[in-house]
Amino acid sequence: MSAAPETVDALLEALFRRADDGTPLDAYAVLDGARNPRIAEWIGRRAMDYTCLWAGRLDPALREVAPYLVHLHRREPFTRELLERMWGDSWGVFATANATMEQLRVHFRRLLRVRDERGRRLLFRWYDPRVLRVYLPTCTAAELGEMFGPVERLFAEAEGAAELTSFRRVGVTLETLAIPVLPPPDAG
Hints:
32% of the residues lie in helices and 28% in strands. The chain is globular. Strand 5 (113-115) and strand 6 (121-123) form a beta hairpin. The chain has 188 residues and is of the alpha+beta class. The chain has one domain (5-180).
């Protein structure tokens, strides 16, 4: 699936806005290599700044399905190409923050493992938009604090890809906003 230019423009507008207080924010994508086996190789060739969220030397098969943090730059052709390619296919989520890539990498790595009711450690694929948009509304205030950390907003493709859902922690609550990104259907 490929996003229309109008959709990409709407996504760029949503991702590259300032914080409410006027502070400039950096935009990032957290991409799920398991959603498309070519993601890792593609960002390795095209992205300016990226890092794997899994640590250590990875077997090529694991590297292919790993999650990647990518720093997005509004005027970089890669950003537009990424939005065109990924929209509608749940490749990952977005974040805006007034934080460095390394600070976000450390923060996001902490979210990768959770314990179930038996105490077993499990991989938490929070970077899948289908997981994030269901999980965030169920969070307690403490869990929201853990999820957001230095992040200003998290964004997930909505079901059906007609909207980008923006999530923001406001005090102890979650603010959710639906941002339309598909062009309106033709009237004629």
